[in-house]
Amino acid sequence: MRILRNLSRDRLATISLLIIAVTIIAGIFAPLFAPFDPNEINMSLRYASPSWEHLLGNDHLGRCILSRIIYGIRPSVLWVLVVLFISVLAGAILGFLAGYFRGKIDAIIMRICDTMLSFPGYVMALAVIGILGVGLENILIAFALIKWAWFARVIRTSVMQYAELDYVKFSKATGISDFKIIFKHIVPVTFSDIAVISSGSIGSMILQISGFSFLGLGIQAPNPEWGMMLNEAREVMFTRPELMLAPGLAIVIVVSAFNFLSDSLQVALDPKLVISKNKYKENSPYSAVKVREKEVAN
Amino acid sequence: MLKVDKVQKSYKKNGLFSSERQIILKNVSLECRSRECLGIIGESGSGKSTLGRLMLGIEKPDCGTVLIDGMNVEDRRVRLGNISAVFQDYKSSINPFFTVEEAILEPLKIQNKSKKENIDKITTLLNQVGLPSSYRNKYSHELSGGEIQRVCIARAISTEPKCILLDEAISSLDVSVQIQVLELLKDLKRIYNMSYVFITHDIQAAAYICDRVIIFKDGQIEEIVEIEHLKDVKSVYARKLLKSLITF
Fold first, then answer.
1. pTM score, two decimals?
2. Rounded to whole angstroms, how far apart are CA atoms A151 and A197?
3. CATH number (domain holding residue A78)
4. Cβ–Cβ of B80/A172 closer than 8 Å?
5. Which residues of chain B make contact with A109, given a CB cutoff of 8 A?
6. Which end of chain B, N or C, is surrounded by fewer C-beta atoms within 10 Å?
7. Is B43 helix (H, G, I), strand (E, B) or coil?
8. What is the pLDDT, as a whole number, of residue A290?
9. Domain ranges of chain B
10. Which residues neighbour A31 within 8 Å (Cβ) at sequence distance 6 or greater?
11. Minimal Cα–Cα distance from B152 to chain A, Å?
């Protein structure tokens, strides 16, 4: 509750949260929100400009762009979030184990991570697609397989900074169990780091999925996807540049909403930053500088 | 009561595949009696903090045992409520996400007492360490160093342990606050009948509070001396240590 209250004080965070919530709801209930069938071809409306009936106009096959954007939320945002959640979860569990217990567990987990990270991401994804076949779900599996190692590594480093602190030592000394210590002491302090790295990779994952769609390896042709819509618009980039606007803006807005939200979340989660921010607002011109500095340090 | 028996500890020197080890503690044996304040004095890098971590059961010795009332401290159920600690660095002693109340409540919660009882207990604890009970809702960054150290002491005594390990607990405080905290520790010792293991590099502070001091050098016990006989230490190192003291 405290977190929500802190977030609501931050206008940018509220707007970002609103955008993300609306996007997710629109994606889940796409058939209710979309005015037309996204795959319905209507050649008479080819390259039609926006009208009251088709708010964002029509593409090269006369399909309603608004409907395609709304249906495109599913592969572009929802599935990316699911994959992100899975890989962050796997990375977090292994990262916590490695960073907290150290020793042999750490060595084993980190060597596996090194092995995974030694392959370039795109090559690994191509290999997985080569084995499993073309399709969105296989790309997503490939992403989950590649990304967890990176998350595990970053989270381990973050955990290691905190696992040596005196309050953790005190809890260990008084005989509190390791899992309790991890949940009560280490998860809250590392959460802001996890939030920032995962929101940062949402953007790159959305772009990568559209990249694979462009190569024809991802989601297949008639189905709408933001990256693929951009690629379709690319063919008429010089004659009808406005076609790139809708999918491009959709990607930019959603990605920046996630980034802004993670920034504000970091502030909202940290009692130190919230209080100092309020204090500085009252009587100090240095507020912006101070808060920034802390964010970078984290 | 707290008995360290022929403990040895070494750390790996460099990297995963190196077999070279740096020995920190060599065959250390000592005992802290019940209701005693045992001081461990040594310079930086002498291994006294490592010894402290072994006594708390946070790390395992390579060989030898640390026993409290005959039971091994490596088992966390033995440590539960029996042993506690106060550390040097007051900045990281309390979780920044916890209020004073939550911090003190943490070790108390394991004892399965009613919530009301615990809340009352916190009020008495805060009063005992000289803080108003209105401090319970403050976060650690809103307190001064001395106040945080007091909260840490309150947290350490909350479970009424048999033994508290104070690892440089006053070293990061101002001299005037150091005296206050030492007085407080003396008073609490009388009330709760605990024993202290007081790790420090400050001989004056040790002389003020301890009954017995161990002079520690290069991972070995150089000399054990009762505080009354601190002046007539025999070993060369201990004499040098006493001489190097600045006197006013």
1. 0.81
2. 8
3. 1.10.3720.10
4. no
5. none
6. C
7. coil
8. 41
9. 2-243
10. none
11. 9
